[in-house]
Design a protein that fits this description.
By secondary structure, the protein is mostly helical. It has four helices and two strands; from the N terminus they run H-E-H-H-E-H. Strands 1-2 form a two-stranded antiparallel ribbon.
């Protein structure tokens, strides 16, 4: 069977197993694109709560959000590991309490980081100076990522 060069995709050249760096790159690249799509959908359909001055701002915001969310998860896991290593009910309570505190509190830090990076070019409005809108957007981003991961795994 002969193949016309115009029908070969660049993706057809990936006939090897990807390295761990390549897998990490694709994981973060995909997560950033998912965040970008979700953020822009909120900008389009919830403009009174989420707005941006340009696509470039949302692209950079998606990168910053992904980095800050990953840092938050790393911190939460380290603190969880600390309390999981300790015996007793108080340690178990502290494990869950600190997880909630870190995951919820990080949204304030993320909102401030976005405000510092973009000023009025990216706005989350509404209740509590936009924190509720940001939490809704972040939860939607995480849900979209989870759905895509499950879909990807089912394809195996």
């Amino acid at each position: 069977m002969t193949t016309d060069a115009s029908t070969i995709s660049v993706w057809d050249t990936f006939d090897h197993s990807p390295s761990s760096r390549q897998r990490a790159f694709m994981r973060y690249f995909t997560a950033i694109l998912v965040d970008l799509v979700v953020l822009n959908l909120f900008i389009e359909y919830w403009p009174d709560k989420v707005s941006a001055s340009s696509f470039t701002v949302t692209l950079l915001a998606a990168v910053i959000l992904q980095v800050l969310l990953k840092i938050t998860i790393v911190i939460e896991h380290k603190v969880a590991g600390y309390f999981n290593a300790k015996p007793g009910g108080f340690a178990k309570f502290m494990r869950y309490f600190t997880a909630w505190l870190i995951l919820f509190g990080s949204k304030f830090a993320i909102l401030e980081a976005l405000a510092l990076a973009f000023g009025d070019r990216l706005k989350f409005g509404g209740a509590f100076h936009g924190i509720v809108a940001l939490i809704v957007v972040v939860v939607a981003m995480l849900a979209a990522e989870v759905i895509l991961v499950k879909l990807y795994r089912r394809m195996a």
